[in-house]
Design goal:
The protein is of the alpha/beta class. The protein contains eight helices and ten strands.
Length: about 220
C-alpha cells in the first residue's frame, strides 16, 4: 500500500430491514479507531438514513438460486464494479465492535487474502477476485449446495489460486469463544474484556443485547 494512501473499509447493507443506524454506528467506531485517512464504503441499494461521509455503491445483480440465503450477497464484494476501490481494503460485517486502533492491520506486509470471523483484508481491484466471481455466477447452484457459506467457497478458490492466510492471532476475535466464560463461571462472571483485540465479532442479533448488559462493550459500541 502506498504511503499516506487512504485506508478502505467496506461493509454491506443488503436488507431493507437493516437499520441504517448499524452502518452509521460502524462508521463512528471506525472514526474513533483509525489515525490515518480512510474511505468508508457501504455496498447497498438503500442509502436512506446513512451519514453523508459514507460512500455508497450499488449491490450488483447476482444470479443466485432463490432458495439460498442473502449471506451469499457477500460475493458482490468480488464483482468487477469493486475495481474502483484500490489498495488494501478491510471488509467488516455490521455485527462487530471495534475495540482498538486499526492502523496495525494495514501495516501487515502482505499481498495475501487474510481473513478471520467473516472479516477480511484484500485488494478489490485484483483480477483474481473478478475471476472468482465469474466462476461463482456460472456455477452458483452447485457452489451454494456444496459450501455452507461464502467464506468456505472463497477459502477453497483462493487457496488454489492465491496465497490465503488467517489474520495474526488475537487481532480479530469471536465474542462467544474468546470472551464468554465457560460453565459454571459464566453464571456469576461477566464476559472478559480482551487486551489486544482490535475487532470483536458477534453472532447475529447478539450484539445489541450484549451492549446493553456489559459496560465495557457499551463503551466501544458507539451510537
Amino acid at each position: 500500500m502506498k504511503k499516506n494512501a487512504p485506508i478502505n473499509i467496506v461493509c454491506i447493507k443488503h436488507e431493507k430491514s437493516t437499520n441504517p443506524a448499524a452502518v452509521n454506528r460502524l462508521y463512528s467506531m471506525i472514526l474513533a479507531n483509525i489515525s490515518k485517512p480512510f474511505n468508508f464504503y457501504c455496498i447497498t441499494n438503500d442509502q436512506s438514513g446513512l451519514r453523508s461521509e459514507i460512500i455508497c455503491r450499488h449491490i450488483p445483480t447476482i444470479r443466485l438460486p432463490k432458495k439460498y440465503g442473502t449471506e451469499w450477497v457477500k460475493m458482490s464484494l468480488f464483482h468487477q464494479n469493486m475495481s474502483k476501490i484500490s489498495g488494501r481494503t478491510l471488509y467488516l460485517d455490521l455485527n462487530v465492535v471495534i475495540t482498538g486502533l486499526l492502523d496495525d492491520l494495514f501495516e501487515i506486509e502482505s499481498s495475501k487474502f487474510m481473513h478471520l470471523n467473516n472479516c477480511f483484508l484484500y485488494n478489490p481491484s485484483e483480477p483474481i477476485y473478478f475471476e472468482m466471481f465469474r466462476v461463482f455466477e456460472q456455477k452458483s447452484a452447485e457452489i451454494c449446495q456444496k459450501f455452507t457459506n461464502p467464506m468456505n467457497y472463497i477459502d477453497m478458490y483462493l487457496g488454489n489460486k492465491l496465497k490465503s492466510s488467517p489474520m495474526p492471532d488475537g487481532l480479530i476475535i469471536n465474542f462467544v469463544s474468546d470472551c464468554k466464560r465457560n460453565f459454571p463461571l459464566n453464571l456469576f462472571l461477566k464476559p472478559r474484556q480482551p487486551r489486544d483485540a482490535k475487532i470483536i465479532y458477534f453472532s447475529h442479533h447478539e450484539i445489541d443485547k450484549q451492549a446493553n448488559k456489559i459496560n465495557w462493550i457499551k463503551k466501544f459500541y458507539k451510537k
